Structures are given as C-alpha cells and as structure tokens.
Amino acid sequence: MSAFLQQAEDILDVAVAANDPGAQDVAILLDRQGGMRMLDAAGWSLPAMSAEFGATAVYKVERRGGTVRVEGWGGGQRCLIQRNVPACSGTLYPQRQLGYL
Q: For 9-24, what is each residue's pLDDT tens digit?
C-alpha cells in the first residue's frame, strides 16, 4: 500500500473515532517539509488547495449522514475512502470501502 493511501486510511480512522456528527468538513494539507495544515474545506477543490498552499497532498474529510468519507489528491494520485458509521455501532471496526479514482 502506498504512503498516500495509508495516510488517507489513518485520517479516516481518526475521523471515525472522533464520532462527532456535528463536525464540519475539513481539509488536511501536507507540505514538502512534512508540515500539516487544517482548513475549512468549503468552496475549495483539492487541486486548488494544493496549488494555493504548495501542498504535496490534500485530504478532505466529509461527514454525510452515517458515512465518513476521505478524498485525497496529490503526487498524481487520487483516492476516495469511506466508512459507514452506524449511530449505535456494535462492532469495533465499521464497514470500510476503498477505491481509487
């Protein structure tokens, strides 16, 4: 598995563990020096954020109903990972869906 996809999965794990249905969509930008920046994702495309802030990778975390979704863009790669998070989950690991775009 690539580092790019592993980062997307790690971000998804944290977003699901937070279990905050009221949380806003957020973008996470990683720069060339290893720095990380979190921004409001509203109104931005992933390529535009990368160009504006000089990011090597950009991930957008979205919550819709019972689903948490992470979309990633950078280094010529794209990914979309989502996980269904039931309101009252009886399992430790909710269903995970992976996909490359």
A: 999 999 998 877 778 8
DSSP string, 11-66: HHHHHHHH--TTPPPEEEEEETTS-EEEEE-TT--HHHHHHHHTEEEEEEEEEETT
pLDDT along the chain (101 residues), means of 10: 92 89 89 91 93 95 92 95 74 52 53
Distance between CA atoms of residues 7 and 17, nearest Å: 15
Where along the chain do its domains lie?
Answer: 3-100
Tell me if 71 sits within 8 A of 23, measured CB to CB.
Answer: no
d(CA 92, CA 89): 8
3-state secondary structure at position 67: strand
The span from the CA of 16 to the CA of 67, in Å, is 9
Q: Report CA-CA distances (Å) from 87 to 17, 25, 65.
A: 13, 19, 9
